[in-house]
Amino acid sequence: xxxxxxxxxxxxxxxxxxxxxxxxxxxxxxxxxxxxxxxxxxxxxxxxxxxxxxxxxxxxxxxxxxxxxxxxxxxxxxxxxxxxxxxxxxxxxxxxxxxxxxxxxxxxxxxxxxxxxxxxxxxxxxxxxxxxxxxxxxxxxxxxxxxxxxxxxxxxxxxxxxxxxxxxxxxxxxxxxxxxxxxxxxxxxxxxxxxxxxxxxxxxxxxxxxxxxxxxxxxxxxxxxxxxxxxxxxxxxxxxxxxxxxxxxxxxxxxxxxxxxxxxxxxxxxxxxxxxxxxxxxxxxxxxxxxxxxxxxxxxxxxxxxxxxxxxxxxxxxxxxxxxxxxxxxxxxxxxxxxxxxxxxxxxxxxxxxxxxxxxxxxxxxxxxxxxxxxxxxxxxxxxxxxxxxxxxxxxxxxxxxxxxxxxxxxxxxxx
Amino acid sequence: xxxxxxxxxxxxxxxxxxxxxxxxxxxxxxxxxxxxxxxxxxxxxxxxxxxxxxxxxxxxxxxxxxxxxxxxxxxxxxxxxxxxxxxxxxxxxxxxxxxxxxxxxxxxxxxxxxxxxxxxxxxxxxxxxxxxxxxxxxxxxxxxxx
Lengths: 416, 146
Hints:
The complex is a heterodimer. Chain A has 2 domains: 13-46 and 306-410, Aspartate Aminotransferase, domain 1 (Alpha-Beta Complex); 50-304, Type I PLP-dependent aspartate aminotransferase-like (Major domain) (Aspartate Aminotransferase, domain 2), CATH 3.40.640. Helix content of chain A is 38%, strand content 15%. Chain A contains 14 helices and 15 strands. In chain A, helix 3 packs across helix 10, helix 4 (104-114) packs parallel to helix 5 (137-146) and helix 6 (163-170) runs parallel beside helix 7. The longest helix of chain A has 20 residues, at 70-89. The model of chain A is unreliable at 1-5 (pLDDT under 50). By secondary structure, chain B is of the alpha+beta class. In chain B, strand 2 and strand 3 (76-83) form a beta hairpin. The radius of gyration of chain B is 14 Å and the shape is globular. Chain A binds chain B through residues 351-355, 357-359, 362, 369-371, 384-385, 409, 413-414, 416, and chain B through 31-32, 35-36, 39, 62-65, 84-88, 124, 130-131. Chain A: Its cofactor is pyridoxal 5'-phosphate. Chain A: This is Cysteine desulfurase. Chain A: Its EC number is 2.8.1.7. Chain A: One of its GO terms (biological process) is cysteine metabolic process.
């Protein structure tokens, strides 16, 4: 049970102020009148992000790194500036450590392909049992191609990573450990620092999927000391179609490029090609330029609003959500109260998650239901899916109250 | 798995007429009544017992699972279909009311979309819904075509 949360202390004042910056959430402009509680799938975008992309297309649309003309020069400057902003945002060391991709999934695939030549038969890869498919399938495929094998780090009874089980697996000297910073299905925060430092004792490469963490907690890759960290723009108030692969320079340098072609080369002849330097070496072809520029605006937005106060308010709101849900009868809440971010997952006892999702949708409440692209976790939990409510900086107490009222209606309807 | 199908007599059940169904929906006053009706509808057609809820008969949907069996006698097509979710089962029942014990010509000429639109349920049929209903409808029609 959630304790010590007084409903009346939840103000969500900061969120209410921010909401006006999101055109889709602004009731006057939102034709669907949605109560949006599916931020973990993708966040809404503030005006500044949409405007930045608009401005690029309206005033300086051109390709980057081909600057014989002013348009391209400006596009390149703005594009590369975002790389520098990201260095500061996640506390990387140099701009070579920031690779633009199309999303977390591509970042992780890029790793699984890029590391292939360093794997051989019998190598062990440890993955997070609560991971989503993007941090499972690429490793499985790598294992199939190389003869390596994959083992899942067990979970304890609260579906947290079992650190004792993990340490036992480390004795098998895994070559790589891939985990989530925050899980997408349950919002569980993994003790990443500890997992990484333990992995180092076994000399394993460490990969962190930060897709669900990046918009809810400050990420410091230097402090985490992971080898790789992957995340997406669209989960942090930025556009879809852009992701980031952070890697330590010396680790990124070891990757075989998954994509080859323009932009990533130094010299090409019909006999041979010499690849260029980082970061371009891993960014073949025309990158998602408008998306990177939009992401730049999202970082600026986060720098302004992703303050300690806002983060605290978001956590309070999540507690309020858990508390309000726990007050209802016949609700099964998954994951612990203390140790999760952004997400509360639940089922109405005896009811199918999709029925709940559809009946909430009828009342304008947008949540996600299903297996959340984490089928192995659902198997471990012995459920075939669940409902997931997720929040962001713009979520208010009113949103949560609307959801709870709607859920009461759903329960009533399903009882009839 | 093809020999492992429910006995023929399991397929021989009756469904109400489509006119009757349309009338029932026409007199609902709000979304609650409509979805209540839908869930009741799901109870009016046979369920598939668990032993027959097997993967080869499964129609994929991300959010729920559905199963479909087909049996043909002369030119009449008989179906058993089920879902683990109640509303989807209700939606499937509408397809059964349209298709069950009909001949190929009727099934292939059935105005699926128009019917769902009349019932005010078109968006539940859309391919953007992860309930697999459209895949199920397509599979039923493909049985009638083959």
